[in-house]
Fold:
Amino acid sequence: NRIASIVDEYANPNISASIGLHGELMVLEAFARSEFVMRGRETRSYNGKTWRETDHNLDFIFERDSIAYGIEVKNTLGYMDKKELDIKMRLCAHIGVRPVFVVRMMPKSWMFQLYNAGGFGLIFKYQLYPFSHKELAAHVAKELGLPLDSPRAIAQGTMARFMRFHQSLL
Structure:
């Protein structure tokens, strides 16, 4: 009963929605802090090209040094859906942006696929809870052993990994 109660608490749709939105806002802030310009949000178009094959879109398109990145954020405990990964990689190729998936974790074979497509997987290791839910995150992490954290911002080291990738393209 205790475990079921904890699962009910963190699986509440309001909590889940705020965790997803929080992940996107943290990514937005981290890329802005690193001087990337947002060229689109929840979009399927870039530079005059539009994806029409499915209803999918990208969370963000950021640009810096004339390099555009299609960003998909998945602030979840489990892996994203593989079909969605494949579709969003095709979407990025179609509109001419490099695919970047910001996730808690991703299988190595998917990372290799992403690398071969000229993209990048930015791995957090933790599901990121809003700072206002810090106590809930700590409680759930302790009781269920889940990889949760509630930092105020994405760590500099995390963005440094992406910046090294970006610099390698210049």
Q: What stands out?
A: The chain has six helices and nine strands. The chain has a mean pLDDT of 94.
